[in-house]
Design goal:
With 730 residues, the protein is of the alpha+beta class. 23% of the residues lie in helices and 32% in strands. The chain has 14 helices and 37 strands. It is elongated. The N terminus is likely disordered.
Length: 730
Amino acid sequence: MKQLLILACCLLVFSPALIADDIYRVYVSSDSDAKDLNAIGVQPLAALTDGYLVLADQDASRALSQSGLETQLLGVGFTLENLALDMRRDRVNTEKYPLICEVDGIRLYRVNLDDPSLAGKFIELRRPNPARIEIRYIDRNRFGSIPTLKSPRSMTLSLDSLIGRISEDTLNAHLHYLESLRRVAGSSGFYTARWWAYNQFNNYGYDSLFFQPFTASIYGTPTACYNVIATKVGTTFPNHYVIVGAHLDAVPGSPGADDNGTGAMAVLEIARALADVPTEMTMIFALFDAEEFGLYGSEYYAAQAAARGDTVVYMLNMDMIGHYQNSNQANLYHGPLTDFCELWIGLADSLVGISGELAGSSAYSDHYPFQLEGWEVTFVAEYNFSSVYHSPYDSTSYINFDYFHRMTQACAATAYYVSEQAGWMSFSSDVNVGWVPFDVNFSGSTQFDAQSWAWSFGDGDSAWVQSPAHEYTDPGLYTVAMQVSTGDATRELAKPNYIVALADSMLGPALLNVSGGTTVGVDVYARNTVPVNYFEVPVEYTGTLGAVFDSATLVGTRAEHMSGPAWLHWDPGHYRKTVVVQAIDNNPVNFLPAGEGLLIRLYFSIPSDADLGQSTTVNLGGYTTHLPLFRWKDLQYNPRSVATLLWTGGCCLGNTGNLDNDASGEVDLSDLIYGVNYLFLGGPQPVCWAAANVNGDLECTVDLSDLIYLVNYLFLGGPPPAACIGDCES
């Protein structure tokens, strides 16, 4: 009986661990992957650009391991109740709560949000809601791409005219007023702000205008909240929607000028500029409530739109677009689809001089509920993140109004451009990454009445059929463009950096002559076609020399601005190490630029008792699961490599014959001339006697027989110079 009681107590103590679930990252790259993952019965925690974070019980974990899906185990022993997603865009919460993982821009913590100690506090976390996440595959090349700026398609209002309507003075005046209102969801300050915004829309002439009520948990209390919605009905496609949105609320104790007065006032200003401009699709201007407490307002709107069966073509979200430490760059967060992000990048660069960067996924703003419904989203944000985020100092004193103005112009141009596309065009290919030379088969499609097709492959070549084939022979990133002519207009779809043609390498010198008791540096050079944000250098070093891999450095290399080097793997028993280097904060500014040159320097200690003829091969080609690796965005691949031989052969390297001791090490006519000068004309003696001993005689002398040997080799088809036999100077 006593044993049974002990067993029961143990089960009570350890049962949470026994029933707790595991966290996985699962990649979804096809419809069948999505179907398989749904069938397994996991709980989705967050949507990523290329799959999902999921919670799997023991049965689901077992099924995942047998499914053939690409997965990554991130943590064990969790329940849904002790998980929370970050709501902050900076990393402050990583210092407050236990971080489980950070994947594709999304941070997950071990926190029980029902803990009584958190009651009544402003907690910038939210619990995952698996019921709101449908596991699906979004085809990146699906029907729905759009023409780019190069299309001469006529619009009611030119883009130059539209952005000229965006007034910096109006943005300035409105933001100064808005910061005077403390706009916490459910507060009297927000009540004033929503009525003021409603009246602004009304003054601009929007008669389809309403408050959308919903209930949100504010400090743990159910609270009535309200989105402000203005609608501009499309002239041709009234049931197709382009949503321009931002949250109007702010955190407690903050004026909320940048977060998110800038985004909210940009929505109002874009609505004002387009008030009298017909658009083919319906445009929705949405100011969301309760974003700061968990995306409540946008989540409610997206759920209602999905329940109605709305065709949301695009959701453009603006959140923090004016911090004073910015001037000409922006971050664009997105879901699996990036066509409209790339459109924003092209328009912003050409119209207002802002360079946009694809920044990956984000679950921290109002675009995210729309992404979960499978709609294309862009979350536009300032590039250099606010230094006064969620603080009493987030005021207009920290706003760059010129930058804020141009960011609003770029968003206005993008939203209007999308709303004016009455038909669609798209293209795909059977491959878009390969090692040169390789063939690519393209396939074009359109809803337009196409009379002719034209393609530009980015390397100077073209084609004039609907679905061409093309061979890429040179390494590089290539923008592919497809034009469709309908007789009265020509429309173009361009996909920047669509084809990645690789010829990348990672190599050290073929041969290094070393001496005992020294430390030798092996310079590893690399050619990378794409900017690299992460790379691995596997090193396997074996042979009779007994060289030891001591350290590595980035000083004086192309990668010295990156973080590292660090050891990813170390197996001293098999003489293996893998070095890892990555971009600081994964910021594109800190990527290794495309190009070639010195990548990293590896240091080896040579034993003091090393004998002539001993060697160690330094292999960079990889071992077991560790291979040379370059990574850029969601692309990772293995560059080709060349091994280095560390050799204690004195000054002679490999074979004899290099009498003039030139850097190339090649045996040629200059070596013969050098020998003739030395033997007959009083020229300088050989620098390396062992290399000058071409016939390899044991006396190690340099005489006429060596010159005859060279003549036979160079001109009469004789045997090549002999191998180095030792140190002739000894």
